[in-house]
């Protein structure tokens, strides 16, 4: 019961944060519509990412239950550490921001009211920033973390099966062994289909949100050509966060088709060797079924394929769009 209440409170809270951020940025929207709208859109999309994910809560729960059978890869610890560092950095940035912000600039956090007491200023601004950072990038980072974790577990599971085939001697790689390995692979494939079903839309929005954030930061530098140390620090942090989040997601998702292709290649080599040595044509139907299977690539709404090469594509698109529409 408490979990449900806290979950609903959190969902309402990030929505109110999004509304508050738009309401408190009316002056910025009027001064620079393109820059402010892009920045606010990234925050809004970050919130939508969260809602799109919890909308599939039941499917997500079922997916996580299925994924428990998969081995936890060592890379997952690195992602856990990065997520923890991200939490700490966001907390520190919100406090730093409250400490260095001038009184004139601090007014917008209180809707134009003067904040005379220094501790009140720090409390209000740090809370405002913390809540904003919760809407973006925290919730989208959590979704990206979940996605990366599941993709890495699947690719690791496929890699383990590939290594089993490698280590198996041709004479031992009979019909029962092939069937056992393909059965294990089918379990992973089913999990991958569920990942695509649950995360296709949220991850697409997450990537879009981070691209918008990078775009707004680049435009900010192009328009202002200057800024305080803190603003520069914050811009660098959000740029790095956006890039790492997108790159890690595409890298993890891109490992899946690579491991599947590697699995098919090793399976083909082993069965081909058996065919040449023992002329076991009755085993070919399993191989045919495997190779008739369409290539699987995770994607965002069928619009953006999640391959490692997509990282370069997004960087090129971002820079082209930003400088052409300067």
Automatic annotation (TrEMBL):
<keyword id="KW-0812">Transmembrane</keyword>
<keyword id="KW-0472">Membrane</keyword>
<feature type="transmembrane region" description="Helical">
    <location>
        <begin position="78"/>
        <end position="101"/>
    </location>
</feature>
<keyword id="KW-1133">Transmembrane helix</keyword>
<feature type="transmembrane region" description="Helical">
    <location>
        <begin position="229"/>
        <end position="254"/>
    </location>
</feature>
<protein>
    <recommendedName>
        <fullName>Gustatory receptor</fullName>
    </recommendedName>
</protein>
<feature type="transmembrane region" description="Helical">
    <location>
        <begin position="39"/>
        <end position="57"/>
    </location>
</feature>
<feature type="transmembrane region" description="Helical">
    <location>
        <begin position="133"/>
        <end position="152"/>
    </location>
</feature>
<feature type="transmembrane region" description="Helical">
    <location>
        <begin position="309"/>
        <end position="325"/>
    </location>
</feature>
């Amino acid at each position: 019961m408490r979990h449900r209440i806290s979950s609903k409170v959190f969902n309402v809270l990030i929505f109110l944060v999004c509304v508050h951020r738009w309401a408190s940025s009316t002056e910025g929207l009027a001064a620079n519509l393109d820059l402010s709208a892009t920045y606010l859109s990234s925050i809004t999309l970050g919130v939508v990412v969260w809602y799109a994910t919890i909308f599939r809560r039941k499917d997500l729960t079922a997916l996580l239950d299925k994924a428990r059978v998969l081995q936890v890869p060592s890379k997952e610890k690195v992602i856990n550490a990065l997520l923890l560092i991200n939490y700490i950095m966001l907390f520190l940035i919100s406090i730093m921001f409250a400490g260095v912000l001038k009184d004139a600039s601090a007014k917008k956090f209180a809707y134009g009211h003067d904040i005379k007491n220094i501790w009140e200023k720090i409390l209000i601004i740090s809370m405002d920033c913390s809540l904003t950072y919760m809407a973006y990038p925290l919730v989208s980072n959590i979704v990206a973390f979940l996605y990366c974790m599941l993709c890495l577990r699947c690719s690791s599971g496929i890699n383990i099966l590939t290594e089993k085939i490698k280590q198996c001697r041709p004479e031992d790689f009979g019909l029962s062994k092939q069937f056992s390995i393909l059965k294990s692979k089918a379990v992973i494939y089913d999990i991958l289909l569920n990942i695509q079903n649950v995360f296709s839309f949220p991850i697409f929005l997450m990537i879009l949100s981070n691209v918008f954030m990078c775009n707004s930061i680049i435009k900010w530098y192009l328009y202002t050509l200057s800024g305080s140390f803190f603003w520069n620090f914050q811009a660098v942090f959000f740029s790095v966060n956006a890039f790492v989040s997108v790159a890690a997601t595409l890298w993890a998702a891109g490992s899946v088709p690579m491991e599947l292709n590697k699995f098919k290649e090793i399976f083909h080599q082993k069965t081909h060797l058996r065919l040449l040595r023992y002329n076991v044509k009755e085993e070919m139907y399993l191989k045919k079924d495997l190779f008739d299977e369409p290539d699987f690539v995770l994607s965002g709404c069928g619009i953006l394929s999640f391959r490692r090469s997509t990282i370069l594509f997004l960087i090129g698109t971002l820079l082209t769009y930003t400088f052409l529409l300067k």
